[in-house]
Amino acid sequence: MKTETLLWVMLLIPIAASLACAALPRPRAVLGVLCAGVFTATATGAVVIHDVLGTGPVSSATGWLYVDALSAFNLAVMFLIFCLSSAYSWVYFGGPANDVPLTPRQARVFGGLWCGALAAMTLVLVSGNLGIMWVGIEATTLLTAFLICVQRSRAALEATWKYILICSVGVAFAFMGTLLAAASAHQLQLSSHDTLLWTVLRDNAAGLDPVLMKAAFIFLLVGYGTKAGLAPMHTWLPDAYSQAPSPVSALFSGFIVNTALYCIMRYLPITEAATGGTGWCLSLLRLFGLVSIVVGAAFIAFQHDLKRFLAYCSVEHLGIIALGLGLGGLGTFAALFHTLNHSLCKTLSFFAAGRLGQVFGTHDMDKMRGAYRVAPAWGTAVFASILALIGVAPFALFMSEFLIVKAALERGAIAALVIFLAGACVAFVGSLGHALPLAWGNPDGETVREPVRATFLEACLVFLPLATLLCLGLWLPAPLETILCEAADVINGAAAPTLAHFSAGVAP
Amino acid sequence: MTSAPLVHLFLGLLLAPLLLGVINRTKAFFAGRRGPPVLQLYWDLAKLLRKGAVYSQTTTWVFQAGPVVGLAAVLAALALIPFGGAAAPLHFNGDLLLLAYVLGLMRFFTVVAALDTGSSFEGMGASREVQFAALAEPALLLALAAAARKAGSLSLSGILPAAVPLSPELALAAGALVIVFLCENSRVPFDDPNTHLELTMIHEVMVLDHSGPDLALILYSAALKLWVLGALIVGMLVPTVAGVPWVANTVIGLAGMLLLAVVVGVVESVTARVRLVRVPHLLAAAGALAALAFVLVLR
Amino acid sequence: MENLVEAILVGLLISDMTVLASSRVAGCIRVTAMQGLLLGVLTLLLQAEAMSLRVVLMAGIGMLLKGGVFPYLLARAGKEAGVQREVEPFVGYIGSVLLAVAMLVVAVWLGTRLPLQVHAGQTLVVPAAFMTMFTGLFLIVARRKALTQVVGFLVFENGIYAFGVATVGEVPALVELGVLLDAFVAVFVMGIAIYHINREFDHIDTDQLSSLKG
Q1: Which residues of C140-160 are buried (b: 16+ CB within 10 A; e: fewer)?
Q2: Which domain holds residue A318?
Q3: Which of C175, C181, C185 best tests the A interface by mutation, with the highest count of A CBs <10 A?
Q4: What is the C-alpha to C-alpha distance for residues B68 and B221, in angstroms, rounded to an integer?
Q5: Looking at residue A503, what is its pLDDT?
Q6: Which chains touch A (3 or more CB pairs under 8 A)?
Q7: Listed residue (B39, B46, B48, B47) closest to B16, CA to CA
Q8: How many angstroms away from the CA of C11 is the closest CA of chain B?
Q9: Cα dihedral: A332, A334, A339, A340 (round 10)
Q10: Model ipTM?
Q11: Bridge-partner residues for A58, per DSSP?
Q12: Of the four listed, A1, A94, B23, B34, which is most buried by Cβ atoms within 10 Å?
């Protein structure tokens, strides 16, 4: 099949799966169809990504669908996270330790929205039109809102409301930014069809009105930044993460925030070229990144709820990614690499948090001591993933953060570097203070729990991501490096350093 | 220079009490009554002027000065107001500020005279009057400022001949002026001129202790104030016709004043007085309209 | 013609002030409906020179959704939740109106700062759009009821819509449809959320949704 056709197939499979899920009577069947749909879409996506890497950007429908290395990389991360999370939702909702199983109605809602969210995110990543990209982001917000309160409770409803309202308003800001970007092209006399095409804007970026494009970028950064959970627009994030069912939390922190960051990445080269390559938008991004790092690190130490703690970790890491993007050059490469590592690691930690939560019946870290003895597999997962998150050496997150440090040194951004390292140290201490008792502490006196044995699927879900993170920390495979470099080139635009530069920088 | 300004001044002095008669007749019509004669206020004034005044022993000269200064102030205001497209008897750059200030002077003396009685009831009315005036005055000044900016003149005589067609900004300013007009003249929905014993009234409660000629002066001043502010609104909204004798424009202006009186009567018949705590909301709305107009003309 | 555009924009500004000064939720919803209709007419007027079936269709769909469907959905949600008035908002009504004047000044200033391509004689469009956006945002932060916040969201969207109509004009129809569809789903989803919140908490005061913090 031609790649152009596959693009459409990749979009349509999740929609079909979503409709099928909404029609099925039994929860088990819904989860089955959900997994099948996600895996089929992944297979299609793999072919598309392969073709894009082989032959360069693919576009269809006169440029409305457009996949280049940047979208291919994000597609790869998305499918990876979706596959893991879907398999995990099978464990989480279908497992024996689940006290409150899904009702058929809840299962239908969950399956329908889950696959719908996949379709919406795919739309964001494959659309070449910035307007359609916005439509996809807003659709993601709306489709995922009720995933938070699939199993309804007061707190979950509260989190849902905050999520819908804050993110809808934020994304509306982004729409304003999109309109401003379109308005900034008034001198180009574009036809209605070309107005918002990314390729057209990129090729003519020098002819855009710089003042309007700056205004547009501010709106876009605030708007999409809200969805991406950049501080100080992150307030919905801890609530949503902590109240959503764990597969959903994993999805949120693993990829939904990344789609919003992806949108910002798309605008970076255009804004940079329109403002004459002065690095104005990069410095703005650095600022938001640093604020996020500081806020995330500061809040980490005071958390009691395991999932809230992980949520603030997300804020910190999104800040790191934004900082990397803001440094440009090698930093862009490192930020993209960090995106992959963080998604993988955070997904794993939410898997563990959810499963341990089911075992202990709470997410309060003071009552979850000694997880390692109670559930060896998941205890390992939570401890190892927290270690990885705080940047302990052999894991891949250490590598990507190290690269960001290097990029900061190369650029001479010493102040940013100092703030980043200070934030990372605070986060390190705070997280370790949570992680040690969580894994090794003595369980609460009276209740003696039998160790919970993990099934084969659960073991796979723990060890595959961990092994990947370890491998990536020690050795970066050539295809991954290529796709990262090409994606970074897309973001850095015409002024991009060559691939060889990255290779030299990456070799540990 | 024709005799038009003086005729207009004379017309205002003569016809002001008639407006109140028209308002009352309109209200009576809506209520299904015959109502008092249109000239009732003239008879009232004549009756009051023939009576003697009673002064409380606690009052001072301030109490007696109140009505006199009030009338003097409103007469000055009347001299500043152009009518029927002709210039006012007195006009110079910045006279719109003087208009606001002479009206303020009139209010000040009414309030001080009320406080001079030492009655808590009148003190309450005075406090309300001042509170609402503090909100109405910015609206009046902003609306006038908007109109002045639009017309490019700082004199009321340069502003008032209405522009054709009416621009949105001036319509907004006129809207604000209508609200101020209703408030300043103690009409529904701000105050009910028919009640004398309610705890909610504002203007009427301040003049309860005045009697005889003093009360006549106060009633006449109130009628003149209605005429002054009414002429302001009519001047902004009713266009003048060019190329005809000034008498024709005067007739058009008079028709506008009568129409305004009828409209006020209709408003009083179909709306209820708002609760006292809501009065500032209405005045804030007037202020917002005026500010909107001002920002629009500044743009 | 130009005067008509001006009049509509002034109408938009007055509707912003009304919605800020009004405590009745149903009244606020009616004002947003009116705004939707005004925006539809504005679209037709601004693109009168290049009138095409597409323009008429888009304006029609916009008016139908913003002037009819959204208010209907909101009014139904309000009826189910039994909400009539916004009692004790965070910022009082007089304060809101005074702030509205300040917002207007900022909006006019912003309109002069941005080098947008606007037809001569329509310089009020951009300030009016910004003012409407500010109004929406202000409603979201200054009111307690979830329903009023949704009204604020709609007003905010109306402002962005006005801005788009005035400055961009030619957005592909597919994008425009997608945006309208998203707005529709957003109102729908928020309505459902309000329904559930009301059932679970017996009120829709968002300041009492405060169990999650830190």
Answers
A1: bebbbbbbbbbbbbbbbbbbb
A2: 281-508
A3: C175
A4: 9
A5: 47
A6: C
A7: B39
A8: 9
A9: 130
A10: 0.93
A11: A67
A12: B23
Our count of domains for chain A comes to 3
Nearest to A334 by CA among A392, A409, A259: A409
Q: Which of A379, A375, A114, A127 is nearest to A247 (CA)?
A: A114
Question: Which residue's structure tokens are 């000065």?
Answer: B65
Query: Hey, what are B299's tokens?
Result: 């743009």
A111, A33 Cβ separation under 8 angstroms: yes
Residues A285 and A387 grouped into a single domain: yes
Domain endpoint, select from A278, A312, A333: A278
Which residues sit opposite C24 in a β-bridge?
A: C85
CB B116 within 8 A of CB B79: no
Q: Assess whether A160 and A261 both reside in one domain.
A: yes
A201 with A231, same domain?
A: yes
Question: Cβ contact (<8 Å) for B288 and C105?
Answer: no
Q: Which residues contact C113 (CB under 8 A, 6 or more apart)?
A: none
Same domain, A497 and A432: yes
- Same-domain check for residues A105 and A252: no
Q: Return the residue matching tokens 């909006």.
A: C107
**Whole-angstrom Cα distance, residue A152 to residue A165?**
18
For residues A344 and A338, give the distance between their C-alpha atoms in angstroms, rounded to a whole number. Answer: 10
For chain B, the domain total comes to 1
- Residue-wise pLDDT tens for chain B (299 aa)? 468 888 999 999 999 999 999 999 999 999 999 888 999 999 999 999 999 888 988 899 999 999 999 999 999 999 999 988 788 888 888 899 999 999 999 999 999 999 999 888 888 889 988 999 998 999 999 999 999 988 888 888 888 876 666 788 888 899 999 999 999 888 888 887 776 555 667 777 888 888 899 999 999 999 999 999 999 999 888 887 777 888 888 998 999 999 999 999 999 899 888 888 888 888 988 998 999 899 888 87
Report CA-CA distances (Å) from A382 to A246, A276, A362, A364, A499: 13, 46, 15, 14, 36
Q: Tell me the residue range of the domain where B133 lies.
A: 4-298
* Of A221, A251, A278, the domain-final residue: A278
CB-CB: which of C93, C108, C123 is closest to B281? C93
User: Which of C168, C170, C200 is most worth mutating to test chain A (most A CB atoms within 10 A of its CB)?
Assistant: C168
Would you give the distance in Å from CA A220 to the centre of its chain? 18
Report how far apart, in Å, the C-alpha atoms of C93 and of each of A471, B138, B184, C15, C19 are. Answer: 61, 18, 22, 15, 10
CA angle A183-A186-A191, nearest 5°?
A: 100
Helix, coil or strand: residue A108: helix
Residues A123 and A179 in one domain: no
Q: With beta carbons under 8 A apart, name residues in chain C contacting A142.
A: 182, 185-186, 189
- Answer yes or no: do A413 and A480 share one domain: yes
Asked if residue C70 lies in contact with residue C193, where contact means CB atoms within 8 angstroms, the answer is no
